[in-house]
Every structure is written in structure tokens, then in C-alpha cells.
Amino acid sequence: MRTLLALLLGLAMTALAQENPLAGVIDIHVHCAPDSTPRSIDAIDLARLASQRGMRGLVLKNHYQPTASLAYIVRKEVPGIEIFGGISLDLTNGGVNHSFEVLGRKETAEQAFAMLAPGGTATIVGMIPFGQKIELHGFDFLRERRIQGSSMGSNHFRVDMPRLVEFYMRGKLHLEDWISAKLKLPEINEGFAAMKAGKTVRSVIMFDA
User: Fold this and answer.
1) Are the C-beta atoms of 15 and 25 separated by less than 8 Å?
2) What are the beta bridge partners of residue 96?
């Protein structure tokens, strides 16, 4: 089975409801019972607690076992909260077959290449600043590792965009969660400044405001 690892390092979502900082949050690194290491709470009780606190979802993790089956059971027992399972990366021998860098940073681009197994491919999706160079060990290329770029996610615009719009209209694509600010057109310079300073994830210009 080919292993897929998405590099989403450093990406954080800001809770929209200030009176409840956990509202709408998805915890992507949850270790709970049952596990080979003693844990203070099991997966079902943790899901109930997270739901009571207004959280949107949990990603169940385990160092040695896949958690998809556990996530399925928890979803049945605790409706109303999204529960995700995953594979165990500790069992990945010698690296991953595919890695994706999505932040546009020198460090994560180098990490995406370094974690590859022999014959693996790293795809750079993020926009690395113009003039910024990345450093790779030449010897690693002898193991048939590859690194490649991507333009707009290598998407098929005419096919993918209608599909994404449909997902959004059906409530399967939660775009609002990634909107940090809604700006009027005269505020566009302030929006660019906030983006360059790393203060926002995505800003939307409201032309009718």
C-alpha cells in the first residue's frame, strides 16, 4: 500500500466564537485508550467531552495501529461530532512514497524531500518566495528520489471547480472555516499587509459592502 503524507505543518485555525475558544475546532493529534501506552481517557468518553465543549471533530492517532475502525465505532456511539481515523506512520519503513509541501516554506520543502523512501516523490504545492533557494543532499537523488512542482495544485479547472462548488453548496466543503477576515475594497492594502505578516489564513474582499 502506498503511503500518503500531507505536510500541513504549522497550520492553525482560529476559533470564531471568542466566548468559546474550542468552538468549531478539530484536534488533529489525539491519543486515547485503547492503546499500548496507558491513557487517561478512552476514545468514546473523549468524543463526548469534545462534543460538549463545542468542538467540531477529532483525529484519533496511534503509534502502532490504524485507527479507522476505532473512529467508525466512536462515530456510531457519539453522533454530532466528526471523528477521523488514520494510519500508523511509526510502521512506515524507510520513508513515505509521496509527500506534499503546502506552506511555501524552505524548511518544509526540504523536510518533504528528506522523508521520502527510495523512489518516492515530493510535490511542492506551496508558493515558495521568489529567489528563495532550497538545499537538498545530492546523494539522496541516487536513491531515485524525486522532487517536483505543482501549478495551482495541478488541477483540471473545468472539471474540479464545478465539483468544489457542488461540495460547498452541499455543506461538504467548509470554506468559511478558513476565512480570517472579510474586507471592503478600500481595505485591500491592509489585507495584503496582514497576509505578508502571517496574521491571516485567507481574506475575502466583499465588493458589495
Assistant:
1) yes
2) 116
What's the pTM value of the predicted model, to 2 decimals? 0.45
Residue 14 CA neighbour count, 13 Å, CB half: 12
Residues 93/68, Cβ–Cβ less than 8 Å: no
Question: Residues 143-202: pLDDT tens digits?
Answer: 899 999 988 777 788 888 898 889 888 888 887 777 888 889 889 898 888 877 777 777
Strand partners, 30: 60
Tell which CATH architecture fits domain 93-154: 3-Layer(aba) Sandwich (3.40)
Going from N- to C-terminal start, the domains of the chain cover: 4-89, 93-154, 157-205
* Closest-CA residue to 17 (of 65, 68, 53): 53
Tell me the C-alpha distance between 120 and 98, whole Å: 6
